[in-house]
Amino acid sequence: MGQIARLHCVGALIIDEIQHLLTTRDNNSEKMMNFFVTLVNEIGVPVMMIGTMRAKSVLQQDFRQARRGSGQGDMVWQQMKKDDDWDLLIESMWNYQWIRYKTELTEELNQTLYEESQGIVDIAVKLFALSQGRAIETGEEKITPALIRRVAKDDLKLVQPMLKALKDGRISELEKYEDIMPMDIAEYLQYHQSKIDLRATIQKKKELQALKRREREISNLEKLMVALMNLDIDPTLAEKVASKAIKDLPEASQAELMERALNLIKERMEPSKSKVNQSSKNTLRVIIDKGRKQKLSAYESLREAGYIKAPLDEFVI
């Protein structure tokens, strides 16, 4: 075995998932550990055995196996501490935001993320991603400490006992758990994608309804203004009273809008009726006639001539 390792220039042999030996039958785990001990003695290269906390019960079956299994030493890989390394990780990760309103990293957010992940990098990264997904889904579009806690409670239920054991410092409790169950981010996003799509569909329908309402208001405004100008009403006054009539009676018919506009004109008029400037009337007729030759409506002709403001400027949806 040592000759084969040297022939293939093996620098180190790494054996992962040692804890799975606990599931073997007929004392096969002890046989495998004896094989590993022999392997360490004969292969002539460093052998590293890796497993979860449950692997300790396999590696410590007897003194010989524990001594051989540790090789040149053993190490229990703990979660990250809340120090400069953690801060560097979170600050680097925080740049990857996909929400509408970028959230600045604060000490409270940093501390909340650490408490809910207990320094486990995999949990912290997934919690950051899931929090953004929840923010987009709900329309909140920003990350808050309350959101992180809510997501940890709702979407990390399987690992909560383990995280609680880490938080309380009860390392012996960790040996009860096989491992932190890996989360399927793709499955989570696929599940919540339907909700996001539904919200986007609703928003699109709202925008379409608003567009139709705006087009209807513009059409009513144009018809009402033309009708008023045919009665020799000044275009500026016609625009004002027409806009006010539509605003006061948004669901009214054209006849009702016309009646309302005429009443508004009467309210604005002085007791003695002012004379209409004949030259102004002639000018407007010339503009309208010229526009008709270009296949423009009276409303479009007067708007291009500067007598009417753009109606969209007066409407806010």
Model description:
The chain has 317 residues and is mainly alpha-helical. It has 3 domains: 2-70, no CATH class; 84-183; 213-314, no CATH class. The protein is built from 15 helices and 2 strands. The chain has helices at residues 2-7, 28-43, 55-59, 63-70, 84-93, 107-117, 121-138, 145-155, 160-168, 171-174, 185-229, 235-248, 254-268, 278-293, 298-304; strands at residues 13-15, 47-49. A two-stranded parallel ribbon has the order 1-2. Helix 2 links the parallel strand 1 and strand 2 (47-49). Helix 6 runs parallel beside helix 8. Mean pLDDT is 77; it is low at 272-276.
Secondary-structure blueprint of this entry?
Elements: H1 2-7, E1 13-15, H2 28-43, E2 47-49, H3 55-59, H4 63-70, H5 84-93, H6 107-117, H7 121-138, H8 145-155, H9 160-168, H10 171-174, H11 185-229, H12 235-248, H13 254-268, H14 278-293, H15 298-304
Parallel strand pairs: 1-2
Helix pairs in contact: 2-4, 6-7, 6-8, 7-8, 7-11, 11-12, 11-13, 12-13, 14-15
InterPro entries: P-loop_NTPase (IPR027417), TniB (IPR008868)
Coiled coil: 204-231
Keywords: Coiled coil
